Each structure stands twice: as structure tokens, then as C-alpha cells.
Amino acid sequence: MIRSTQDDHRIVITGVGLTAPNGDSLADYRAALLAGKSGVDRYHIRYVGDTLAGQCHFDELKYQKRKEVRRGTRAGSIGIFCANETIANSGIDWPNVDRSRVGVYVGVTEHGNVETENEINEIKAFDYDTKVWSHHHNPRTVANNPAGEITLNLGITGPHYTVGAACAAGNAGLIQGAQMLELNECDLAIAGGVSESIHTFGIFAGFASQGALAEHADPACASRPFDRDRNGIVVSEGGCLFTLERFSDASRRGAKIYGELVGHAMTSDASDFVLPNPEQQSRCMHLALQRAGLNPEDIDIVSTHATATTSGDIQECAALRRVFGNADNVMINNTKSFIGHAMGAAGSLELTGNLPSFDDRVCHHTINVDNLDPECELSGLVLGEPRTKKSVDIILNNSFGMLGINSVVIIKRV
After folding, report:
1. How far, in Å, are 90, 289, 333 from residue 180 at the CA level?
2. SS3 60
3. Are 12-252 and 263-412 in the same CATH fold?
4. Which helix (H) or strand (E) holds 280?
5. Strand partners, 12
6. Which residue, 16, 34, 336, 341, has most beta carbons within 10 Å?
């Protein structure tokens, strides 16, 4: 079918499915954010020992049988839960949807480390005899696994793949889904990001070796972006997938629309493995604004990426000043202070936490900022408690990652 009208090129969010350390539905998640409720708790993982993490508590058996959970992966289970939830939330007539015209695009930071670590731990007890290596290892560790498990569960025969974009992946999955709809490769996209990161000791060990793993006597206070006493990242798992449709299709069926994707951009720093580049981050924001036909002062809420690392927060704040320095209207918040860093799911979860602002006009705050770092001071930073605006029409969501990958999406109220 040829698509030619203007509304065919407008991409909207019509469903949300998520699991976060502090909620398994948008309503519960949003309530936790407004109430200042953290999802970070004590956590133990082999070799690293006692640490802190954001762990999800969704019902794995709601959409899977026990055998399917055992055969698959944690990222796959997260994806399956979120995909089923977003379809149900969208109100689409799923039994009558042409599943050859459904695409699945899932952002991931990494995938497969968990399964390989588990297998090596297993064969260690057998003097490293590879005969006990699981025959499920290969399908569990292929890069397309989380998206592929979703298609198997839901009988989707359209295109699927994961988008490897480090911690910019949640935004990247959303962007990819929108682009595939615009290219008419599908009529419905399930897109966003997932992460199983807390189940691999390597991520904890890697951040610890960098001196970037958060520590705090009170788990709820461990993730503290912008705070002078921040000491690192809280690793978390989670997922958030959206149903994306063309505005024309969504309108035709009378769907609830959470927002319209009006601008997006992805850029590269090309400067360092881990240290962000504020010049390139600001360029990414400017590019997204340009594509949306907007000015900085048109933005109502900026959802920051800030991970609570010493240098990373400062660099992003410098980028934000370059873009929004004279924009008095903008409110700025951070969701990682509540749930930690959900890696591949971070961008989509952080965007989702702000989407209800279109209706209630409330910008959730950033918690755990007891002593604001002077280098992180921003005029619109919302601290202490949520703030209400006269109206919220446009949200800009930042999501950045290692190797200098930057992503920005802009969502507008419809």
C-alpha cells in the first residue's frame, strides 16, 4: 500500500509496556516517581559480592510458561512482558492484526554476557568439560535474541532485530521503529529498549575497576546525579516498549495517543571511549530541535541522561547550558536517581516516566541531590519535589552511551 498523506508520516506512541525497579505499569511507575520512591536495593552477585542494584519484580509467568522462561533469557522475558503489556495498553485489535506487518525493534546495551558467564560457571564444576555446555547457549546469545524471543511469543512474522547503541539504545530502538514505519516496512512497530545487565558480574566488576560503581549505606540514596557527593552508577535492569503507529492509522481506530515523535537525532563524539563530549551532545540536541522545527525555548521538559558519574554529569550539564542557557521555560529532571541506570532500557524508561506530564502538567523531580554540585547547576533543574507547569506540550529526552554515541528524541503532545 502506498502512503502519501501528511498524517501517514506522523509517528505516534499508542501504547506503553514497562517493567522498572519501582513499578510494572505506567500508572505505578509514575506514582513512584511523583512520590519520590526509589527502586534501588541491596543486591548480591557472584565474584563481586554485596552491592546495590535496581531489580525488577514483574511476573515472568504472566505471558510465558516455566519451560519457556528456562529456555530463554532474562532480557527475552523482560521484552516479552513489555511487548504484551504495550499491545494490551494500546487497545489494538491484536487477534486481527496482520502480524507480517508488525516490526520489533529493541535497543540493547549488550547481550549474551549473562549466558556465557553462567555456562562458564557451570562447566567449572566439571573441570571445564565443554560436553556439559548448554545447547541453548547459541540462540540465547545471538544479538537479535530479545527481539526474536518477542516474535516467537507473539507470532510476529514481520522484521525484527536489536539495535546495539550502548546506553543510548532505548532512544535508538524508538527511532528505528519510527523510521521503519515511515519506510512502510511495517504498519505497527514494537520499539524501545530492554536490559538484563544486573545478571552479569562483568558489568559490576567493570564499573568497579573504573571507580564508577555507586556505594551508599542507604540503597535508596545511592543513585545521586548532580550531587556533589555522587560516587558512581547503580546498575539496573528493566524494559520499556512502545507501540508506534502512523497518526492516520491511530486516528482511524480512535486510539489513545501518548505523544508524537516530532524530532530525533543520533550523533557520535569520535573523541573518547567513555568520556562524553559536550560539544557533540549539544549538537545532537540542536539537530533534533532543527528537525522538529523547534527552538530551545519551545521545550517544556528535558529528561537528562546523567548517570551520577563525576565527569559525565558535568559534561552533560555543559551541553545543556549550550542549548538551553537562555530558555527560562524549560524544566530539567533525571529518572536514574529513582531507578539507577537501566542501560539499554534507560532512554525508553526515562521518556515514559515523563509522558504523563502532557496530561497532569507535573514535572517529576530529581531525588538524592542534597548538595548540588556547582558544576551541575542548571536554572531549570527540578529538585526536592515535583513542579507543576501551566502546560506541558513538548518533551526532549537525552540518552548517551559509551564510545560516544548520542541520541535525542522529542515528543509532542497531540
Report:
1. 19, 21, 30
2. helix
3. yes
4. helix 278-292
5. 245, 260
6. 341
State mean pLDDT over 7-35. Answer: 97
Task: Determine the distance from the C-alpha atom of residue 58 to the mean position of all C-alpha atoms in its chain, rounded to a whole number.
Answer: 17
Q: Which three cell numbers stand for residue 21?
A: 525497579
Only one residue has cell 509514575, namely 30
Q: What is the pLDDT of residues 101-133, one digit of tens each?
A: 999 999 999 999 999 999 999 999 999 999 999
DSSP characters over 170-190: HHHHHHHHHHHHHTTS-SEEE
Strands (E), 55-159: 102-108
How far, in Å, CA of 81 to CA of 67, rounded? 16
Residue 3: predicted pLDDT: 54
* Amino acid letter, residue 8: D
- Pairing between β-strand 394-401 and β-strand 301-303 as defined by DSSP bridges: parallel
Instruction: Return the number of other C-beta atoms located less than 10 Å from residue 66's C-beta.
Output: 9
Place of cell 481506530: 253
Q: Which fold has domain 263-412?
A: Peroxisomal Thiolase; Chain A, domain 1 (3.40.47)
| Alpha-carbon span 139 to 155, nearest angstrom | 17
The pLDDT of residue 328 is above 90: no
From 355, 349, 351, 347, select the one nearest 400 (Cα to Cα). 347
What pLDDT, in 10s, does the model give residues 225-258?
999 999 999 999 999 999 999 999 999 999 999 9
What is the DSSP annotation of 196-251? -GGG-HHHHHHHHHTT-B---SSGGGS--TTBTT---BPEE-EEEEEEEEEHHHHH
Which residues are 154's β-sheet partners?
none
pLDDT at 20 over 60: yes
CATH classification for the domain delimited by 12-252, as one of 3.40.47.10, 3.40.718.10, 3.30.70.100, 3.40.50.2000: 3.40.47.10
CA distance 28 to 408: 26
Residue 403 near residue 344 (C-beta atoms within 8 A): no
CA distances from 140 to 145, 194, 203 (A): 6, 15, 18
DSSP 8-class letter at 17: E
Delimit the domains of the chain by residue range: 12-252, 263-412
Residue 39: CB atoms within 10 A of its CB come to: 26
Neighbours of 68 (CB within 10 A): 17
| Listed residue (162, 296, 139) closest to 239, CA to CA | 162
Distances from the Cα of 14 to the Cαs of 227, 229, 243, 354, in angstroms?
Answer: 36, 40, 6, 15
